[in-house]
Amino acid sequence: MLFKKIKFILILLLFYQTPVFSKSNSFEKIDSKNLSNYFSGIIAFGNKKNSEALEYFNSSKILINKHDPYLKRYISSLVLENKISKAINLVKQNKDKDNAKFFDAYLLLLIDSLKNDDFDLAYKYISKASNFVKQDRFDEAILESLNQYIFLFKEKKILDKKKNLGKLSIISETFQRCYLGDSKTENYFYNLINDPESDFTRYIYFYLSYLVENNKLEKAKTITDDIEFINTTLLLSQGKSWIESESFKKFNEIFSCKNHNDLIAEFLFLISNLYSSQDNFEMSNFYLNLSNFLNPKFIFNLSLVAENYYLNGDYEKAKKILKKITKAENFYYWYRLKKEAQIIAMQRNDLESLNYIISNFKKIDQPNEKILFDVANFYKKSKKYEEAIEYYTKIIDNLDDNSEIKSDVLYRRGGSYERIKNYEKADKDLLNALIIRPDDAYMLNYLAYSWLERNYKINEAIDMLEIAYASKNNDPYIIDSIGWAYYLTDDYLKAESFLKRAVEMMPDDPIVNDHYGDILWKLNRKIQARYFWSSVLKMDDAEKEMIEKINIKMIEGLENS
Q: Containing domain of residue 554, as a range?
């Protein structure tokens, strides 16, 4: 009992000291349970445990009229749990209250207005939201873009005087012209997807969708003929598959630029993707869920939701989202299986992950190159190098000699040969890969380090590493390699400067710690050397052979030291 009273006092103190506390509110009728639940919700929300936060917020609803930030946090939690309708209704119920006046609340009301084709009301909410633009640099761009789209839907023409939002404006105008059926639409799509400064591969899919919708099927086929499954995106692979199987209706079933909700959904996906690229997975999922609310037919966007959860370590939520992707979406269904296998690897081990993906792979009648490539990579990750080589070979045999994807597959097969100590074939593959991409820093590093490990062509290896380092001077693996090269040529002071950087950047890497220990020994800093060697013995990634060598070094030091 005494503990509960102390806890309540501490919560009250925290509450009154928080900068978001509004002194105008009365807390006389709020009991300790509601306050405790609320603050537990805040903690869970801050720790990205949104489901848990939502449970606490649901248990403290009395605060909706008592504490200004409550509603905002509650709304955010609902959206992040994909309870959009509930969030909108909650805002509507409380829209006249002061604590319901914030950016996200008006954004939700705006989305609801668009859903109901009420463009005048949408305008109204844009105006209100503009008063609450956060420091987030995306907010103003979001409102400006939505304003342009609403004008388009209401007036059936493109707004003349508008702010230039760079690439965002180019994308928006392309879709706006598509909505109007403008004669310049095709040119806009062409210029967009061929932008030399940006990767707008995603919009090739929407260009295909436009061509199909306008019965320009031969042109669509010409475009997809030049696309290889193995080195393109999931969305474009799916589109190419539909074109090749003449499943043209599939495009319009999930997206039409004549549908204003579909357009806004795609715009919100773009915003979500921008947040995701900055590792802000919470905001990314916020806008993704709004996008899916407007266009639930475009199920492919769920892959980014799942990816966000996966990257954030929330594997159970990722799996829940993945279950929504069915066999009907064949490329995305393979993505689902692959991601589920990756989750198994994270939660259990690589072997179980491999068994899962292979058991599902065997059910596929005619796997394309993308699937074969993924299978090969799973085998390689599980150290099943001979099996990986078999699948890499199947792919290589069907690729053009000078294609960049062939270079990548040769690199991976060469690495597999190197791991089973077939150095002749490894060197051949890696050198052939470098013929196609002679300045690729990672390929140069891999081959050079392989030579260093064999005490083979040391000077040539150093030359390659210097080229790699000039291109990627902040890559810790390349820094380690060039440091080790200088060690092997007895340039210990230079080696130490590189290896020290490498171990600072990768303190948990066994090879880097081993190398740093060796150079410290050569510099007669033997206590420090043994410290770094001993740290390797505690690392899960340290291989058995390395551990055996380090145990000897711990006792005897380096040979001929």
A: 460-561
